[in-house]
Amino acid sequence: MKNLTYDNENARCVPYDSPPPGLTAQLHRLVTEERPGACVGCGFEHNCRRDGCAVLRKVSRIVAATGKRGTTS
Questions:
Q1: 12-15 and 4-7: which strand pairing?
Q2: Which one, 28, 38, 46, 55, has least CB within 10 Å?
Q3: Is the distance from CB of 71 to CB of 6 less than 8 angstroms?
Q4: 36: cis peptide before it, omega within 30°?
Q5: Tens digit of pLDDT for each residue in 24-57?
Q6: DSSP 3
Q7: What pLDDT sits at residue 68?
Q8: Does residue 73 belong to any structural domain of this protein?
Q9: Which domain of life is it from (predicted)?
Q10: Domain assignment of residue 55, yes or no
Q11: Quick one: angle between helices 54-68 and 23-32, nearest 10?
Q12: E strands within the chain?
């Protein structure tokens, strides 16, 4: 099955939110290209100047949710 991870603490499989299409590619662009060039037209932008990078916020939420479930890689 897709989009499942194992929760060791509760001994069960739990679903996780998969990243939206293009998130991995845009994250790679942020690493390899200079800003703001990598940011312009990324498709995820929404008040990034005020709230911070939308891509990094989304990745942060995914990592935090995975960590809360007690999973390890």
A1: antiparallel
A2: 46
A3: yes
A4: yes
A5: 888 888 888 887 777 777 887 777 888 888 888 8
A6: S
A7: 66
A8: no
A9: Bacteria
A10: yes
A11: 120
A12: 4-7, 12-15
